[in-house]
Amino acid sequence: MKGLPEILQHSKNFLNGIAAAPGLTMGKAYVFAKEALEINQNEITTDVADAISLFNEALEKSQKELRKIFGFAKEKMGEVRAAIFEAHLMILDDPVLISNIISRIKKEKKSPEFIVDDEISKYQQLMFGASEHYMKERALDIEDIKNRIIRNLQKKRWQSKIPLGAIVVSGNLTPADTILFTKSEAVGYITDHGGLTSHAAIIARSLNLPAVVGTHNASEQIKNDDMLIIDGFHGVIFINPDEHQIKYFTQKIKHLNEINEEMQGLKDKPAETIDGRKINLLANVDVSGEIDLVIANGAKGIGLFRTEQIIEEFGEFPDEEEQLKIYSDLATRIYPDSITIRAFDIGGDKVRQFDLQEANPFLGLRGIRLLLENESLFKVQIRAVLRASVHKNVNFMVPMISTIQEIIKTKLLIDECKAELKEEKIPFDKHCRVGIMIEVPSAAVMSRDYAAHVDFLSIGTNDLIQYLMAVDRGNDYVSGLYQEFHPAVIRILSHIVYEGKKSKATVSICGEMAADTLAVPFLVGIGLDSLSVSPSAVPSVKRTIRALEYSKAKKLAEECLSLSSEEEIIQTIEKFFKDNLIQRTRNIL
Amino acid sequence: MIETTVKIVNKAGLHTRPAATIVKLASKYKSEFYISKDGLHINGKSIIGVMTLAAEMGSELHLTFEGEDEEQMKEEIAGYIIGGFDEL
Fold it and tell me: HSE (CB half, 13 Å, CA atoms) of A498?
């Protein structure tokens, strides 16, 4: 059977986007387009008092709707994240806004919808005018409130009921829309805009539904009732697929279901090689909703929680209590297994919260460098992590370490926070483990020395490879040079494990490389203690580990370390899979 | 009428949660309350108004209170802002 690349080569009926939530599904499209509201600008012909009571009714109706959504959101997304709806509810109760609108209706005798639109838009203009990124998002959020009141004034039904079991296609999905569609059992989401942290993506992942976002124009290309296939693994959508495509994906879905069933059988089995070497198989978590999938797929804990995503979701820095709530919830859910919380890795391409003008952001103020420049912000996070550690299952990890001074300064700050908490009589785990990411070549070289100062090392392969190969993998001209199996890459990985283990530190890997089943025998062979992969990759990695013999994997690793080209290394590993009759999930998918 | 100028001391600035808290605090009092910043003059009892203030750390807000309970109102609200929104 042909693979996806061949199919794509011979097809024109597909769109690419960001693979925001894994899974495969076929279904009918429901294109959700918010009709542009037509605002009646006429003067009111009836009594002014009638117009005002119409406005009050619309407000009440809007409040009722939002309260319902708020309740549903709390259930689906948790209280902290649902707080955005609470602020929206307060706007519907804003005495200044409401009395301004009412007095303008009386004075200008224009239709209430015109006044509502005009009055709220004034505030939005002010927000759009601000230079801060989050103010623009705030203005868009308020659009939702404004349109809700206007729609209720026009007594139009809020378009939230959609055909059952549809794939929702939209330009953008507001939090409220996304929450409501889940009630109609939507089976997948496609949006023109947005990234991994858009509301559609977050909810799709937490519900285990496939989603492709950032397609640019899917909502124009796709019509209602078009037959769609979503490949949430690769971020591809087929529109009105032909016979071959349907056949291919029907097979794939069948395989996927079989694999899922087989994998389900593995859920409670350990990630252990045939000859008894136990690997700690953990999951990486971007947004807290993914925890369900982490547990369902049988990971033994969270090896990496990327906290910077919280900032994107909040649109601003979450305070200590907000962070504490998120960390505690995750730590409680995963208990008795543990969670490793990584400090905000901001800068580079992640989170444009600080409008830094840097010629070369990836080599600039990011990760620990930025945190140490903003100590009070860093301390808020450290305190929240420590407070979440009361059940002794929380580890704290620091990104982008390149010098030993950064480790020492970080540990001093942690000690400072511990002393403060003690003084305030707030409980925390005195022995909360502290580790560092090894993702800068200088730290990789110095692994032994750095390991002596911390409890664990965690290798971030994505950045390590990028910095080692001097290649931006997002840059099409050079992305071919981003080689996971380049001999320098695998030799440095082996060096980190070997050197790191000379101290008591444990060594794990949390980059995407660990999720590539092809890399698993090598990674196990060099002696890594734990692998942390995306939740959806846990079963396939576990299956590969269980099919391995550690003694053979060690020999394979030694052989690979003697080779000098990526091609030879890949061939050697592929041969290893064949010789040992280990099936690769990627081949089936 | 009493006036005071306060500085935002929080790293995250005046984000949504403290904005909502300021409005909730203000609505307990009878006095009028206004916030001025960069030429914007906002009624402090209006959430949508307060949300238009992009006030990052270090920026200054000019507060005015007028009415029978202006003293207590100033104490509580200015205290909340200077104290770092109970977040520090």
Answer: 13
